[in-house]
Amino acid sequence: MRETIRTLYEGDSDTATWFRYTLLAFDLLTLVYVIATSFIAHADWLLWCDLTFGAIILLDFVARAWLEPNWKKALTRLSTWADIVAVLSFLGPLFVNGLGFLRVLRTLRLLKSYETLQRLRSDVDYFRRHEDVFLAVVNLGVFVFVMTGMIYASQVHANDAIGNYADAFYFTMSTLTTTGFGDIVAEGLWGRLLSVFVMIFGVTLFLQLAQVLFRPYKVRFECPTCGLMKHDRDAVHCKHCGDVIHIEYDGAV
């Protein structure tokens, strides 16, 4: 059975490819579900959806763990911890009362975006050509929603101005953009420290995205000699092999 499962996860057959892309579609669906339901109050139908997602994630995690030859290395990957937290957040409240707050932690499932991006990069030419843009978008998106979850978890019972996830998201965005309307203010020492963290790192990630979109540091052009893909915008020689390269350049500074 292990070899059959290994073939599905690591094989090159059409069945294995279909299986892996089905899992990829499920990961994307999970990310959409996590973001969408974070703005919805808890309801009975959400419990059944949570159980379904949690059971599938658990089965996938157990299968990968069974095939993993090096668990120490696996525990260093963000996707591993994202799966562990996701299983706890989806299934934990079912077995132990009072663990509903774990719903907030499922935003860490967004860390799975990096694994998803890696898969698409290896198979889809469009993603390879726009890798920097997609990575910058994912970095900013993951940061925003993970920080929103942390702010909600730390403020919802201590701050009357933050009563739901939407309030926490609004505070995160106003803090990140340094708009600071003042209608919602984080309370307590940890709340203020989170605000500072959001401002410093959030603005950095936002500027990184703007840089990639409007003025990239590097351009993608494959060196005909060594294959290096990233070069300075006005480069005439490859930094790796020194060969002359001919990058289309508009002369703008």
Written description of the protein model:
It comes from Loktanella atrilutea. Keywords: Ion channel, Ion transport, Membrane, Potassium, Potassium channel, Potassium transport, Transmembrane, Transmembrane helix, Transport. InterPro entries: K_chnl_dom (IPR013099), K_chnl_Slo-like (IPR047871), Volt_channel_dom_sf (IPR027359). The chain is mostly helical. The protein folds into three domains: 1-125; 130-216, Helix Hairpins, CATH 1.10.287.70; 217-253, no CATH class. Helix content is 65%, strand content 2%. The longest helix is centred in the C-terminal third of the chain and has 27 residues, at 188-214. The protein is flat and about 65 Å long. The mean pLDDT is 78.
Give a summary of the structure in a few sentences.
With 253 residues, this protein is mostly helical. Helices cover 65% and strands 2% of the residues.
Task: Provide key terms for this protein.
253 residues, mainly alpha, Helix Hairpins, 2% strand, membrane, K_chnl_Slo-like
Chart the SSEs and their pairings:
Layout: H1 2-10, H2 14-37, H3 44-67, H4 71-74, H5 78-95, H6 102-105, H7 112-123, H8 125-129, H9 131-155, H10 165-176, H11 188-214, E1 218-220, E2 230-232
Antiparallel strand pairs: 1-2
